[in-house]
Amino acid sequence: MLRAATLTLGSAVRCGARSQARALHMSPVTAAGQKHRVSLGKSRSGNEYGTLTDLPDWSYTDGTPAPPTQAQLRRERQQKRLLERIAQLQAEMEVAAARPRG
């Protein structure tokens, strides 16, 4: 079915005396440099995690840090849930490994 849609959209279009074939691009969209950043072990978009995302944007002149933003609080909650899930799965694996096989 996908092939039929591709053929329909990829039909030839006549432009004067010349004929041009238009192709439909079917690959997933990736941002510029995304594969390169992932190959280096960095985030896909450059703003998912890291010092520029996790640290505050500003601080008071006396050195007191700025209050966390809503996005920082949301990321902290997500990371905490992920950590709890990892700990739960690890405990389940240890229980399963301690059972006698039989």
How would you describe what is shown here?
- The protein has 4 helices and 2 strands; from the N terminus they run H-E-E-H-H-H.
- It is mainly alpha-helical and 102 residues long.
- The protein has a two-stranded antiparallel ribbon with strand order 1-2.
Note the overall shape: flat
Tell me the total number of β-strands.
2
Which structural class should the secondary elements be placed in?
Answer: mainly alpha
Helix content: 40-55%
Low-confidence stretches: 1-15
- Cα(first) to Cα(last) distance is 50 Å
The average pLDDT value, as a whole number, equals: 77
Count of discrete alpha- or pi-helical segments spanning 4 or more residues = 4
* Main sheet attributes: strand count, strand direction, barrel closure: 2 strands, antiparallel
Order of helices and strands: HEEHHH
Q: What share of residues are in beta strands?
A: 5-15%
Cα gyration radius (Å):
26 Å
Give, in spatial order, the strands making up the sheet with the most strands.
1-2
